[in-house]
Design a protein that fits this description.
Helix content: 40-55%
CATH class of the domain at 4-63: Mainly Alpha
Radius of gyration: 21 Å
Number of strands: 3
Mean pLDDT: 82
Low-confidence stretches: none
Order of helices and strands: HEHHEEHH
CATH architecture of the domain at 4-63: Orthogonal Bundle
Largest sheet: 3 strands, antiparallel
Distance between the termini: 61 Å
Length: about 90
């Protein structure tokens, strides 16, 4: 159970604070509420940081690939398919 000391120590987080802590968007947090340990206080959602840390040990969050790596994989796939079909790669 949380108490005033936990709040003062920064152990009780709101959605925005948790999203910064996780380095994920607030929409990610909302979409994954069914997986992330939290408490509802009326319409408010709170996260207890020590519970989040324990949860993360068993449920690591995969970071989305950066745009450059996605683009490289796409181009590699197109080139590979072009070579298989021995077709001409048309660009532009």
């Amino acid at each position: 159970m949380t108490n005033k000391t936990d709040v003062e120590a920064g152990n009780v987080l709101r959605v925005g604070e948790l999203s910064k802590y996780l380095k994920m968007s607030a929409s990610f947090v909302y979409k994954n509420l069914d997986k992330i340990p939290h408490k509802r206080i009326g319409s408010e959602i709170r996260f207890y940081k020590p519970s989040i840390d324990r949860w993360l040990e068993h449920h690591p969050i995969e970071q989305a690939p950066d745009k450059a790596s996605v683009a490289r994989k796409f181009v590699d796939r197109i080139v590979k398919e072009s070579r298989k079909s021995k077709g001409v790669l048309v660009t532009g």
